[in-house]
Design goal:
The chain is an alpha/beta fold and about 400 residues long. It has 15 helices and 12 strands. Strands 2-3-4-5-6-7-8-9 form an 8-stranded parallel barrel, surrounded by 8 helices. Strands 1-10 form a two-stranded parallel ribbon. Strands 11-12 form a two-stranded parallel sheet. The relative contact order is 0.10. Bound molecules: 3-methyl-2-oxobutanoic acid and zinc ion. It is an enzyme of class 2 (transferase).
């Protein structure tokens, strides 16, 4: 059966590592560290860098301002609540950017409006419209977000989004602030909003990972009509974090045949960005994390190792080099098979005759049972303990 190639649609990547990512408990980046990450994000090819929340502190304002002055390429955004002081601070912080954006937001769910804001829905719409109008007096590029959108009523979302688009917002962001939604719901919500809003509006998704579905929800949003996805390197962020940039980008890249989306990300810069963010934020990456985890390209079982030696595609859906890492690693341990053992010896420069491999492999298994993982030095010791091997 022949499969039809879908038309490829571009997806903008809005990186919020320096804003929502920095809201990870325990993370505080100084200006120099933020600038270093921002330069790497530009090398990576993100479309938008959300550089911070300028009203949060004079330090944050200065941090955003330095990035706006020094980093060229991506749009530089500053976050602002829907109020004059926030918007003025954001405007000041991004004023020297090549392509400045103000991102303003207000909550729209019944629980946030009644308990947190203590405002009536009509007043929330009015505040949002005023905020967007004010932001437009400073910049042409204004994004509006409805905080806790996925727990908001859909007709109310449509109402506030239409009003803010009329006031001048060009990007409309739909955050799953508390990581509550599901892929099916997200796709349907975006399809609904797409039908309600003018063609020129860019719909954006911003997902949190409380139920481990941030990446799936972001992808579903794109299938429903989102053309911008907000995410962070290594998925760092508030509570359980945000959607992980590297996973979304590589899902679109690897399954372009299925999704029909592409991003402008230079995938070979992904690993470097991941290492840098981990080092500077002090947040380690879990070993089994997709794309950037230590084990993401490591093969342990004999069956897998044998397959990978014969053809990498047997157990690899993407090459490590494509994301800027070294080629896949065969982990030597008790699950390793003879093919991997022979290859490891050859890679270390030994030419072991086939009739010796059997005996040495038995000793290797004994050692692996006792020791767990076997390293190059263990293999050298194993070979060098014999005098009849060249
Ligand atoms: O999660 C959220 O709702 C946010 C908004 C400020 C966009 O981070
Ligand atoms: Zn968020």
């Amino acid at each position: 059966m022949t499969q039809q190639t879908p038309t490829i649609q571009p997806i903008r990547i809005f990186d919020t590592t320096l804003r929502d990512g920095e809201q990870s408990p325990g993370v505080a980046l100084n200006h120099t560290q933020k600038l270093e990450i921002a330069h790497q994000l530009a090398r990576l090819g993100v479309d938008v860098i959300e550089a911070g929340f300028p009203i949060a502190s004079p330090g944050d304002l200065e941090g955003v301002s330095r990035i706006a002055r020094e980093v060229r390429g991506p749009i530089i955004a500053g976050l602002a609540r829907a109020g004059r002081a926030d918007i003025e601070a954001a405007a000041k912080a991004v004023e020297l950017a090549e392509r400045p954006r103000i991102h303003t937001f207000i909550a729209t769910s019944p629980i946030h409006m009644s308990k947190k804001l203590q405002m009536e829905p009509d007043a929330v719409v009015e505040r949002a419209v005023e905020a967007v109008r004010l932001a437009r007096t400073f910049v042409d590029d204004v994004e509006f977000s409805a905080e806790d959108a996925t727990r908001s009523e859909w007709p109310f979302l449509a109402r506030i989004f239409k009003a803010t688009v009329e006031a001048g917002a060009t990007t409309i962001n739909v955050p799953d602030t508390v990581g509550y939604t599901t892929p099916e719901e997200m796709r349907a919500l975006f399809a609904f909003l797409k039908g309600e809003l003018p063609e020129h509006v860019i719909l954006s998704a911003h997902c949190h990972d409380d139920l481990g579905m941030a990446v799936a929800n972001s992808i579903a949003a794109a299938q429903g009509g989102a053309r911008q996805i907000e995410c962070t390197i290594n998925g760092i962020g508030e509570r359980a974090g945000n959607a992980a940039l590297e996973e979304i980008v590589m899902a679109f890249h690897t399954r372009k045949d299925h999704y029909g989306f592409e991003t402008a990300i230079r995938t070979r810069e992904i690993y470097r960005a991941s290492r840098m963010v981990s080092r500077l934020s002090g947040m380690p990456v879990q070993p089994n994390k997709g794309v950037v985890g230590d084990n993401a390209f490591a093969h342990e079982s004999g069956i897998h190792q044998d397959g990978v030696i014969k053809a990498r595609e047997t157990y690899e859906i993407m090459n490590a080099e494509l994301v800027g890492r070294e080629a896949a690693v065969l982990v030597m341990g008790k699950h390793s098979g003879r093919a991997a053992f022979r290859k490891a010896l050859t890679d270390l420069g030994y030419d072991v005759p086939e009739d010796r491999i059997k005996e040495m492999f038995a000793r290797f298994k004994d050692l692996a049972d006792r020791k767990g993982q076997i390293y190059a030095d263990d293999l050298r010791a194993l070979v060098d303990s014999r005098t009849d091997i060249p």
